[in-house]
Amino acid sequence: MITPVLFLIYRRPEQTAQVLSAIRAARPPVLLVAADAPHPERTEEVRLCQEVRKATLRGIDWPCDVQTHFSEQHLGCRRAVAGALEWAFSLHEKLIILEDDCLPDTSFFPWCETLLDRYENDSRVMQICGSNLTGCMPPDGASGYFSRFGPIWGWATWRRVWRLYDVDIQGWPKLRQSSELKRLCPEPFEAEWRREVFDSVHSGGLDTWDYQWAFARMVHEMVSIFPTVNLIQNIGFGPGATHTTAADAARLSVPTSEALLPPRLPEAITPWQEADRLYLEKIVGLPRTRLASLRYRLGLLKRRVLAACR
Question: Which of 1, 43, 156, 252 has CA atoms 20 to 30 A from the CA of 109?
Fold first, then answer.
């Protein structure tokens, strides 16, 4: 293995140790470790963050160039992760990225590394994904497919793409009012979902970094590469999670399998529409029937009313 790995950690010692064990088995020659600072008024969080940082550095026991980016002030998910990625790509042309709750199958690393090399100079490809939560498998026996979506539970990309990222999505207000949004969101209710999410991100109401990454992929009309099997198990559901809660576990906990290597992908770099529709239905939760659409619209209206009353 030659590709650097960026490991994003915070306050969960058990999950962090499991993911580090998987990284250790891959033995990357360069490991970048980044962490937000704990909230200074949360005593237990301060203790856990310190414990995780120390244990992680102690656990790197193979020949490895270790580079660290530990925030001195609490930034929150949005600024901390975006800042860590900006730092990491200032040092390296391409990266494999894992968070402390994303436990990879051993084949995840060669899957990413092979495709990072193959599509390094292809401006149509934005990222390589490790997770496949829908179970979609191409009928031709390919080991992966292209998609308009791009989950970040274990992923990889290049500096050339990261340059397109804007944590504040300054281009959203103009796109929101244009007919271009509907063209970029061809499925029913997709544009409405995008408006709800990007409005919250743009206003600062949602403390996250990843929808901005999705925004860049959408406006530049790029694709991600999905494996036909799931290579990442999320072990972060529960009270210690920032966004994933126990309620998500049944829907999003998918066992891992070994990737088909070397990767064999379709020749045409175009999104697989059937898989993307299933992703919207199963993972995003967009409706497919009239009754479901009515429920979705009522829920959307309720959320907007509650947001206006805050």
Answer: 252
